[in-house]
Amino acid sequence: MMLIFYMLTVKNPAGQDSLIIAGEKIHISISVIIAAFVWMIFTWLSSRILSTAYLNKKGAEISFPAYNDFYIWLLNVPRILAYFIPVILQIAALSLPVFSNNADYPLILVAGHLLYFWVFYRYFVRKKILNLIIALILGSAYLVWCMIFMEKTHELAAAAVLNWKILVLFFFFMQTLLIYIFYKWDYNYDDEPSVIKENDNENILVKIHKKWMRLYNIFALVIIIFFTLTIIFYPASEFIGTISILLTAMGLWTGLIYLINFQIIKMKVNLWLPILLYIFFTGSIIDRYLVDTIDNSGKAPRPAVNEFLDNWINDLERRDKIESAKIFPVYLVIADGGASRSGYWAGKILAELHNNVSDFPLHLLSLSGTSGGSVGNSAYFSFLKSTSTLPSSGINPEKEMDDFFSSDFLSYSFSHYLGSDLLWHGIPFPQFVPDRAEALEKSMERSHSEFISSYFRGSLDTVFHPNSKLPLLIINSTHLNTGRPAVISNARLNGVSNRKDILSLIEDSLGKQIKLSTAVIIGARFPYISPAGNIHGESFVDGGYFDNSGGGITQELLEFIKNKMADSTENNLWHKYRDKLKFRVIHLSNGSYSAPRAATVSSGKAVPPSQYIAENLPSEIERQELHPLLNDLAAPLLTVIGTYSSQTSYSNSRLSTYMRTFEYRIDNGFTRFNLPIREDGIDYPINWVISEFNLERIRRKAEGIDIRKLQEETAVDYD
């Protein structure tokens, strides 16, 4: 469990950002301290009971005095396991990117803490003042080093750095207190081997067993109550935060695993195989991960894409603008996936364009995205929906984006993942609490932006009600059964693409509807974080498996429009205005790109350097031999992992190349606003909750983008 915690927090940027959040908010800091203490004591008690049971079982097989050596070993292992929980939290804190130097050598810290444990505990046992002096020197030197070492690397990190210095002091005090607890509670069983008589072995172990079981039951009850509150009560999960939930879950599963192993030792039967077979059997009885559907409200059905495009160009205000302009820019937005990071980036850029580009909504034809990109697109679509019905609503899109993405979407979902979702595998009945995907939906419906959340709670047939002022919204997903790309859109895309239309499956096969929150999460069911969603026997997962930006469907839409513009049928405004309509794809991307490079059109003539763009192709990696064992066992898995990102890279590259040869483009027809993976040596984390530190970094990055080209092309006429 400690290794899992270490990998999730120290080695994972998302986990590190969750730790930064704990340093930014006092109530989460206190929750982390309490949860860490409970896990620490529960780990000690659980392993203590297990070691006692194991010793009871093996006692008859081990002769005295070897029995005592074995006993002392089993006595100290639980202590070390519990002792290292606050140690790992300190290492995680010292590894945070907000500090000037990361803890590059955690093993040195581990060795130092082990030495401190041994010296300090020996003082209590032997009462030698020298041990106390050495322990005080070691502890003081370490704390002074921490306070000097933990200097902020960024002006925005001041609050988190100060609070984490205090937290490190608390955790160090916690591990010191634990040493004293070992002495007070466990010292009677820590005497010299000669004190334990051969004939007393059984009586001593029975006494230990009863003592630890009482304490175990008390702490088990505390953990169960604490964790249950986070599952059934959304404000509780948001209040204590992701790290506290993770620490509590570590305690929960530590206790459960030790309890099963205790029964194995007691019954002398290996229960793990029967348990796994039972879980597999119950899982075949009922599918717990059904997509939540609601009743159809009876609104007008979605238009076909051809009808949608005609309505869009026939909008009176838009048509007047086209008539009076020499050139009318048309924008198609694609947004990369990446949880709240990409969602906030997409939402902020769209809000910037809305506030600073003249009549941006009139020029916006489509919003296509995946995962977090779809969340950002849908948040902006909600704003456009409100202004189309209440033009003078006075809502500021930038503020609403800030409020919405400052919300904690992860904790409530995470508590369901580590609690009810895992435990329910052994229950052969329908799950009456939300699964982790539905919990994620509900988190978005209860965000800090009531304005956006009110639309996320709305039925799609209401939110998607036809309106000529609204763009085409496309949420990308992947059909798990076939690997085929799938979409949810406010228009039926028959004739544009053969991608699976999820909303048609829901409407036609089930006669039902879904909420906007459900729609965006269908496209954001990222591996392991959210389960595949079952709709009428068909499963859907994250759109990033096939296309992580929505570039593929956008290219198909452009090809459809191109054919429509060539159609000289009477009253076809797309044909009539074909010389005025000029298209630009706006890519809201997450990641680094290679240097600009030239390309050629089909005639073989090179494109002028002014029209070069940065290709979104995978960069060359350092040559590395594949281990023969990995080659035999994991080559297919490694290939799938590699194609997960490269598929999107090549899709976006094809779209950018297509735009350079598209007859009705502006310039090269492709503009990219990129949020890099890392900046100033600090990652922008992919997570469903983001610290204020990183939110402010993204906010400043978005406010500094260069949108002058878009401002110019929408503000003046072109020859």
Q: Any idea what the radius of gyration is?
A: 30 Å
The N- to C-terminal Cα distance equals: 67 Å
The number of E-state strands comes to 15
The share of residues in helices is 55-70%
What characterizes the major β-sheet?
Answer: 9 strands, mixed
Structural class: alpha/beta
Q: Estimate the mean pLDDT confidence.
A: 82
The coarse silhouette is elongated
The total count of helices amounts to 27
Low-pLDDT residue spans:
190-206, 593-622
Keywords for this entry:
single chain; 719 residues; alpha/beta; 9-stranded mixed beta sheet; two-stranded antiparallel sheet; 27 helices
Could you characterize what this model shows?
- By secondary structure, the chain is α/β, with parallel strands linked by helices.
- Helices cover 59% and strands 10% of the residues.
- It is elongated, with a radius of gyration of 30 Å.
- The chain contains 27 helices and 15 strands.
